[in-house]
Design a protein that fits this description.
By secondary structure, the protein is mainly beta. The protein has no helices and 22 strands. Helices cover 0% and strands 63% of the residues. The chain has a 12-stranded antiparallel beta sheet with strand order 11-12-13-14-15-16-17-18-19-20-21-22, with no helix packed on it. Strands 1, 2, 3, 4, 5, 6, 7, 8, 9 and 10 form a 10-stranded antiparallel beta sheet that branches.
Length: 194
């Protein structure tokens, strides 16, 4: 159990890293409470970055600002008071606006193209986010792929999160698995039962 700034993170069989108000919890059954926000997810990878919450799992539940969204086979991303839920019947909520899209939907917002389908793609401010079985998200020249072997790239940083989790951050490679290995600034740390 970790408590950070009125944030409670309880995780089982989990690898957790917190970096600069960014919380990433990866496990089979994880629970994160953040700023009166409760997120319970199963078989889920969750990353919170700069008031952005992304929860990816088979049955994810997110409560945010007295808003409850329950979705199945859904990828959800919250960005700047914008809630986007992408699943077989994709739903996006933006500024008290609800848009429900299904198999192949396209939304254009501020020179931003968002296409949601079985291989969901979203573009936001020169940002391309593709959310599908092998989920890929690009944010500010950042590529994040979230799937069974999850990969995330942020600011020329590659993070792969899977059964043998690997994360790279600022030319730093961290591999988190049953025999956890972390490399940080040309430093290798191996974290396991021994």
């Amino acid at each position: 159990m970790l408590q950070y700034d009125n944030t409670i993170m309880v995780h089982s069989s989990a690898d957790m890293m917190q970096y600069d108000n960014t919380i990433m919890v990866h496990s089979s059954t994880d629970m994160l409470q953040y700023d009166n926000t409760i997120m319970v997810h199963s078989s889920a990878d969750m990353m919170q970055y700069d008031n952005t919450i992304m929860v990816h799992s088979s049955t994810d539940m997110l409560q945010y600002d007295n808003t409850i969204m329950v979705h199945s086979s859904a990828d959800m991303m919250q960005y700047d008071n914008t809630i986007m839920v992408l699943s077989s019947a994709d739903m996006m909520q933006y500024d008290n606006t609800i848009m429900v899209h299904s198999s192949t939907d396209m939304l254009q917002y501020d020179n931003t193209i968002m296409v949601h389908s079985s291989a969901d793609m979203m573009q936001y401010d020169n940002t391309i986010m593709v959310l599908s079985s092998a989920d890929m998200m690009q944010y500010d020249n950042t590529i994040m792929v979230l799937s069974s072997a999850d990969m995330m790239q942020y600011d020329n940083t590659i993070m792969v999160l899977s059964s043998t989790d690997m994360m790279q951050y600022d030319n730093t490679i961290m591999v988190l698995s049953s025999t956890d290995m972390m490399q940080y600034d040309n430093t290798i740390m191996v974290l396991s039962s021994t």
